[in-house]
């Protein structure tokens, strides 16, 4: 469980998080809100990249102020936006092996972990490829693999599908679903309301450094999203026109319409 208690944070005296309380566990939690609302700043507190100005963050009971990022990143993996900037090895295998090697695991353990991790993100067979030769979706899944190789319980994914074409986006969505099934807690930072509808179990809306909403996904989509500067997913607009109520997939909508 990650527990955020009365979190305040200021950059150079300017407060950008203003009293956030949040409990996050084994679930897909979408963190949404306008640019500059504090999403990244909040997420960076969860693995100790930033430390609270006031309040505290507990990761499975560990106070982030008392632990290093290296310690915390074994619990909370952070997959940054634009992952290609983080690759520096010649092969996919070496890229994923880098973290486990640094943990001091022996070669056979490292190899086993790399194979398991590449399997988990659907990149088996890519071991000898150069990271730069991968497609957008493959790069995103490699970035997830690099973080996953540290076996963190929680994953933070920052705009994981931005800039991807449909097919690549599907591959990342399927990867996220299978990570959730494997018992990971996933914090998804996104602007994409279609993605929120498809994946999230719960939504936290930040506005101006404060929580404006925290609740189940269905309740989130019953808000007047336009008032919050957000767009309703097309699927829900269509479902409403058809009088079908709340649905999460095209299949579900088709089923309702047939009834
Ligand atoms: P979001 O992820 O929701 O777009 P951020 O957490 O990136 O929001 O930013 C919240 C606020 O903090 C913004 O006003 C932003 O300009 C400011 N900010 C972000 N990073 C820094 C930084 N390194 N130094 C100073 N101000 C920052």
Keywords:
about 260 residues, alpha/beta, six-stranded mixed beta sheet, four-stranded antiparallel beta sheet, 10 helices, about 35% helix, globular, binds adenosine-5'-diphosphate
Compact summary:
This protein has about 260 residues and is α/β, with parallel strands linked by helices. It is built from ten helices and ten strands. Helix content is about 35%, strand content about 25%.
Q: Assess the beta-strand content as a share of residues.
A: 15-25%
Q: How would you name the CATH homologous superfamily of the domain at 2-75 and 152-228?
A: P-loop containing nucleotide triphosphate hydrolases
Give the H and E element order.
EEEHEEHEHHHEHEHEEHHH
List bound small molecules.
adenosine-5'-diphosphate
The CATH level-2 architecture of the domain at 2-75 and 152-228 is identified as 3-Layer(aba) Sandwich
| Quaternary assembly | single chain
Q: Cα-atom Rg, whole angstroms?
A: 19 Å
Number of DSSP-assigned strands: 10
Question: Main sheet: which strands, in order across?
Answer: 6-7-8-3-9-10
Mean pLDDT rating: 93
Query: Could you tell me how far the N terminus lies from the C terminus, measured between alpha carbons in angstroms?
Result: 41 Å
The helix tally amounts to: 10
Largest sheet: 6 strands, mixed
Under CATH at level 1, the class of the domain at 2-75 and 152-228 stands as Alpha Beta
> Structural class per helix/strand content?
alpha/beta
Q: Predict the CATH topology of the domain at 2-75 and 152-228.
A: Rossmann fold
The coarse silhouette is globular
């Amino acid at each position: 469980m990650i527990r955020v208690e009365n979190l305040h944070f200021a950059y150079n005296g300017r407060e950008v998080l203003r009293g956030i309380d949040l409990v996050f566990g084994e679930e897909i939690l979408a963190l949404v809100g306008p640019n500059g609302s504090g999403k990244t700043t909040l997420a960076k507190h969860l693995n100790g990249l930033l430390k609270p100005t006031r309040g505290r963050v507990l990761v499975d009971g560990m106070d982030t102020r008392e632990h290093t990022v290296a310690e915390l990143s074994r619990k909370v993996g952070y997959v940054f936006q634009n992952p290609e900037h983080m690759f520096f090895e010649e092969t996919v295998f070496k890229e994923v092996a880098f973290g486990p090697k640094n943990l001091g695991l022996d070669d056979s353990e490292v190899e086993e972990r790399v194979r398991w991790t590449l399997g988990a993100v659907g990149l088996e067979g890519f071991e000898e490829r150069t990271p730069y030769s991968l497609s957008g979706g493959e790069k995103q899944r490699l970035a997830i693999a690099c973080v996953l190789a540290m076996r963190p319980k929680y994953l933070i994914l920052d705009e994981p599908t931005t800039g991807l074409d449909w097919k690549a986006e599907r591959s990342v969505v399927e990867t996220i679903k299978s990570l959730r099934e494997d018992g990971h807690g996933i914090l998804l930072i996104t602007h994409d309301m279609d993605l929120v509808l498809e994946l999230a179990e719960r939504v936290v809306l930040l506005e101006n450094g404060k929580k404006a909403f925290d609740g189940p996904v269905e309740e989130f989509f019953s808000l007047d999203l336009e008032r919050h500067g957000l767009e309703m997913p097309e699927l829900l607009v269509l479902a409403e026109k058809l009088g079908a109520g709340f649905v999460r997939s095209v299949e579900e909508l088709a089923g309702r319409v047939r009834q």
